[in-house]
């Protein structure tokens, strides 16, 4: 567990057992306490490669079904267009958002900012 994610284990031990310094414990006791952590603890999720608990995934699945039912009642749904994105896919990492250019931009003067803003607004029209 330490090799998987030391920070997650530290947080789980602090939250569950109020242990702030796990190095002060004997190794067998630490192993016993770590094995007794909840199934949805940070370290267990990290070791399983999961990002959400089963309850969160179930709630997301319910939301996905509801939004799909609502979407089917629209004109877009009747023609199979603009399907709502899946929350389950986003939580499980299967739906990777498209990478956009998110580099920060700095301007030397307010006039430079206004020119860049005008250029962006002109593209949108």
Structural overview:
- The chain is an all-alpha fold and 125 residues long.
- Among the domains are: 6-48, no CATH class; 54-92, no CATH class.
- The protein is 58% helix and 0% strand.
- It is built from seven helices and no strands.
- It has helices at residues 6-17, 27-35, 42-48, 54-72, 75-78, 87-92, 110-124.
- The longest helix has 19 residues, at 54-72.
- The radius of gyration is 24 Å and the shape is flat.
- The termini are far apart.
- 5% of the residues are buried.
- The mean pLDDT is 89.
Summarize the structure.
This protein is mostly helical and 125 residues long.
Could you list some keywords that capture this structure?
125 residues; mainly alpha; 58% helix; 0% strand
Total number of beta strands: 0
Q: Helix count?
A: 7
What is the helix fraction of residues, given as a range? 55-70%
Q: What characterizes the major β-sheet?
A: none
State the shape.
flat
Radius of gyration: 24 Å
